[in-house]
């Protein structure tokens, strides 16, 4: 079992920055990949970014590439999402997820990010 708790976000002006954190507990954190997803009102949940177990490999959705950075601190069991140059279309509930096996097996409760124009 893995428990995930997101923090950060809130209200940010367009062009601004914010950082999300996701604290994990349960299984050994450094043994699985982590990801961030988001869901805007009226839309399906979409992939944002993924980082492998060691942090040596990352992957991003085209919509956030060069603006968002995913990172992890295995000593603190935490994954981060640094969000820069925010746009109103980035407004969504952001979720972290753990890829313990082949699927995204565990999810956090989500944290709201609202970008005002």
Please give a handful of descriptors for the protein shown.
single chain, mainly beta, 117 residues, 55% strand, 7-stranded mixed beta sheet, globular
What would your notes on this structure say?
The protein is mainly beta and 117 residues long. Helix content is 0%, strand content 55%. It has no helices and 11 strands. Strands 2, 4, 5, 6, 9, 10 and 11 form a 7-stranded mixed sheet that branches. A hairpin with a 6-residue loop joins strand 9 and strand 10 (106-107).
Secondary-structure map with pairings?
Blueprint: E1 2-8, E2 10-13, E3 18-26, E4 33-39, E5 46-51, E6 58-60, E7 68-73, E8 78-83, E9 92-99, E10 106-107, E11 111-116
Parallel strand pairs: 2-11
Antiparallel strand pairs: 1-3, 3-8, 4-5, 4-9, 5-6, 7-8, 9-10, 9-11
How large is the share of residues in beta strands?
Answer: over 45%
Mean pLDDT: 96
Which sheet architecture does the biggest sheet show? Answer: 7 strands, mixed
Q: What quaternary form is this?
A: single chain
One letter per element, helices H and strands E, the order comes to EEEEEEEEEEE
Large-scale geometry: globular
Helix percent reads under 10%
Total number of strands: 11
Q: Structural class of the helices, strands and pairings?
A: mainly beta
Please give the alpha-carbon distance between the first and last residues.
Answer: 40 Å
Low-confidence stretches: none
Gyration radius, to the nearest Å?
Answer: 13 Å
């Amino acid at each position: 079992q893995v428990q995930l708790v997101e923090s950060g976000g809130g209200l940010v002006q367009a062009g601004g920055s914010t950082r999300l954190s996701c604290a994990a507990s349960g299984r050994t954190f450094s043994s699985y990949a982590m990801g961030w997803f988001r869901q805007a009102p009226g839309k399906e949940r979409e992939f944002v970014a993924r980082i492998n177990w060691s942090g040596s490999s990352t992957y991003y959705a085209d919509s956030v590439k060069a603006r968002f950075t995913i990172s992890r601190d295995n000593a603190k069991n935490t994954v981060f999402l640094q969000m820069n140059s925010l746009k109103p279309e980035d407004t969504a509930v952001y979720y972290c997820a753990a890829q313990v096996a082949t699927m995204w097996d565990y999810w956090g409760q989500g944290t709201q990010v609202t970008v005002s124009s």
